[in-house]
């Protein structure tokens, strides 16, 4: 046994012992319960680097920003609901949205106006801003976004206009059924132009260089610091329903540190990995939930052998996804025999996509995998193959890569899988350049509509790292976003057919839908959004 393994096991034993003591006749004693107040401390996996809603890209930054600023809509436990907008009128052709901005104020007491939204959206679109997520305006269908973003058109031609302080008119190039879900995202939140301009390049880089119109304000934060303290925003339109006094994000970079911080009363909420979570499975503090995140293998079809569909099918069927979920992850994840994750909407009211599709694909079948492999060897006139698998260098992904390597080499003798671990940043860069043979990658739903996944694999997609091209697939996906956009049932039918085309051709090999295991102080009550994010504005702390 390695020294590292011994340390992990000793840590788990200590944690389990402490938990056992807490579970026998006493409440767990963590940060919130020890203070007897409405002050909550939650874990963030990296230091916050910016609070600029146009420029943030990391989940850690966005975790904080979406508590400070709030767009026309906000997330709720059932989907999205109006927030900074008190009303919206949608034209008959569903291409013009007229929002009435709520009578609310920024944290400095100045009014939030429709002009703040117009400024923020145009700042996002401005090439000088260098916002990585400016393309979301294109995804949202905002009129003339493509010309503004990529063809040098004037910002004033973007389809967003404040006609007065309380009225914001948004025009779309096409019908976008998921428009409300999409613009609930942080990138579409308002920015006070006068304030932001006065801060210059320091905007969003300290507690004094950002304004809030959301449920919280920043009361303490320094770039590079390991915590961000948020306080209740007394100017917030819904402040009467905010029970927390403070919400503190504390940086915890690994699961073991998080567990120890939780047990030493420094945290009230922390996500942990499945192995360590096993010690907590009988605790009232332990919970799991599904995230709208799909992990999958993606073969690069520029590699001659991987352009053979029978070889891809063999590689897709020859490994046991249940073992990955049950023996490696142990965190509520489920095997993925699909492209569109569970709980994602279908575009048809009252139906999730999985409920509507009622079909799964690429379920593990080692006998069939061998049959496909034999066909591939005949077609390629080759008996031995060597492929390199690229993956992130974290411990969990490493275990999955090693398991896949073992499964393939044992099930399909003649195939050798070499492993190449890289830091996530490097892995993403190599994927973007197409410099890989097979890769472990992932995609999380940016909004509640199947297009967030289907658009990835079209011929024009910048995320189609595997260079898979299928005219039938493109026709179905393009049809769903164009001629069938206003017909939910036809659009859904096209997407169901597109999923079948993609997975029957083994364009990707789905692995699992991500589950999250976490510890939550049993005194804390909080609602979660459909994709599993804690809605901390709803949190309350019992002092019993």
Automatic annotation (TrEMBL):
Instruction: Enumerate the subcellular locations listed in this protein's record, separating them with semicolons.
Output: Cell envelope
Q: Is Signal included in the keywords of this UniProt record? A: yes
Give the superkingdom in one word: Bacteria
The region annotated as signal peptide is: 1-21
The principal localisation class reads other
Q: Which PROSITE patterns match?
A: PROKAR_LIPOPROTEIN (PS51257)
Q: Which InterPro entries match?
A: Peptide/Ni-bd, SBP_5, SBP_5_dom
UniProt keyword list: Signal, Transport
Domain Solute-binding protein family residue range list: 83-463
Question: Which PANTHER family does its entry note?
Answer: PERIPLASMIC BINDING COMPONENT OF ABC TRANSPORTER (PTHR30290), PERIPLASMIC OLIGOPEPTIDE-BINDING PROTEIN-RELATED (PTHR30290:SF10)
Q: Which family does it belong to?
A: Belongs to the bacterial solute-binding protein 5 family.
Query: What protein name is recorded for this chain?
Result: Peptide ABC transporter substrate-binding protein
Q: Per the UniProt entry, what species is this protein from, by scientific name?
A: Paenibacillus wenxiniae
